[in-house]
Amino acid sequence: EAQVTQNPRYLITVTGKKLTVTCSQNMNHEYMSWYRQDPGLGLRQIYYSMNVEVTDKGDVPEGYKVSRKEKRNFPLILESPSPNQTSLYFCASKEPGITEAFFGQGTRLTVV
Amino acid sequence: AQSVAQPEDQVNVAEGNPLTVKCTYSVSGNPYLFWYVQYPNRGLQFLLKYITGDNLVKGSYGFEAEFNKSQTSFHLKKPSALVSDSALYFCAVRDIYNTDKLIFGTGTRLQVFP
Question: How far is A85 from B56, CA to CA, in rounded Å?
Fold first, then answer.
């Protein structure tokens, strides 16, 4: 089954404690991205990757890092989380062009 | 600036009645438009897209969307709503500068009452 898998689904952490949210896709897609979803703001892109070892900032990259060492994986790293990063995070993948994106089930992160 | 607006935070409709979820866009050139649906505790699922051609686009689960260039709108419709259609709906437009990126609206919660 074609899917994008994120882990963990839920995470509560404390300010400043480094964390990683993993994302893996099994569709051999070149393009992957991370979004955060906040009430009244919709989804905003954090980072994206056009292929292995190619990453770039989206609209709200501050406080986040990513890496793309393998085509299937695109982890999101918060080196020093802060409460304003409390949000619902989605990973997505797609083929280049006017194609639909496939989304993971989301990770609900709470930073206290 | 490119943007998508969903003017209604919530739409309520009775089961069996037609439903419309509104979306307007602002983008230079020809827009490429999408609708996604988010069920509780699930990721976003693709419903349909408009690229070019027929202004009425048919998608999954009986949904369709009407593209109107003069009104810069792309409203989502369904002739007969189901309770199971209750979810959060997002309209999106492809970014003209980063062509694999989607610019999303703020979402509209659809509530279908039995």
Answer: 39
**Which residue of chain A has the CA closest to B6?**
A42
Write the pLDDT tens digit of every residue in B49-84.
Answer: 999 888 999 999 999 999 999 999 999 999 999 999
The helix (run of H) or strand (run of E) holding residue A21 is strand A19-25
- pLDDT reported for residue B97: 84
Give the distance from CA A39 to its chain's centroid. 18
Q: In angstroms, what separates the C-alpha of A100 from chain B's closest C-alpha?
A: 7
* Whole-number Cα distances in Å, A63 to A40, A56, B29: 21, 14, 34
Distance of CA B44 to the CA centre of its chain: 12
Q: Hey, are the CB atoms on A48 and B106 less than 8 Å from each other?
A: no
